[in-house]
Amino acid sequence: MKNRKAEKLRNEFDKGFHEGFTLTDILKRQWRLGNLIGRGGFGNVYTVFPCDSSQVSEYKISDFSAKIEPHSNGPLFTEVAFYQRVATQEKISNWCSKKGLKFLGIPPYLSTGCDKTNKPHRFIILARLGLNVENIWQEMNKNFSTSTIYQIGYRLLECLEYIHQFGYSHGDIKTSNLMTGYNDDLTNCRIYLMDFGLACSFMNKSIHKQYKEDPKRRHDGTIEYTSLDAHNGVAVSRRGDLVNLGFVILHLLQGDLPWISLISDKEKVLFEKSM
């Protein structure tokens, strides 16, 4: 029954947002939908084209994407808030200048908006990205070179240093949330960290929030990579992100995680990770 309902909602979504449909962002700029390039549990990702390219010439970006989800969905609201508070292009540019970086793997953010043509939907406009690292890894028979894996880890550490200095954690680092640049491959290791729908602030008025276990939040996140803190129901902080990243690197190095056969039993996974 749930599958039928989900399929019905998805069909309604697809009919409402078709190729050629126009979105208007909060700056009154219009974007024309292209083809569907991704589908998630809550919405879709499309290529988009500015109806007036002169309005976006300052960004030095030629390929764009739009993620669209029902307005009531929390993750996209969280992601938009994260970009607006933490990851504007100006802030990222200033950080790169300060650190002497030519690249930081956080997708360039352009705008957001709400469409009420049918049911209310929220959208976010980002630079279009390329290939999913998980898919590349699978196509290469789970065999990345050690050098490539370490470079991926290094790129992600740069991203985490940036978002952590703003007092935010990502909360869901995994290979399917890593992407190459558009028309890139892994040779230059320009890896982007995607999906900030679970990003949260671990600071309160410049003070780190108290370590507090919440039984209702036990095992939150993607179980293979979930940190020990998240298993215990603690909101993800810097430590949680770094443990999360460590599990991702271990997965890429070994091909599988030691607890992969146990993921249907979250308590057993926690026990194995604690050993």
Automatic annotation (TrEMBL):
Gene3D superfamilies according to UniProt: Transferase(Phosphotransferase) domain 1
Which molecular-function annotations from GO does this UniProt entry contain? ATP binding; protein serine/threonine kinase activity
Identify the domain of life: Eukaryota
PROSITE patterns membership: PROTEIN_KINASE_DOM, PROTEIN_KINASE_ST
Q: Which UniProt keywords apply?
A: Kinase, Transferase
Look up the EC number in the record and give it. 2.7.11.1
Q: Which residues form the Protein kinase domain?
A: 31-275
Pfam families from the entry?
Pkinase
Which top EC class applies here? transferase
User: What name does UniProt use for this protein?
Assistant: non-specific serine/threonine protein kinase
Q: Which organism is it from?
A: Henneguya salminicola
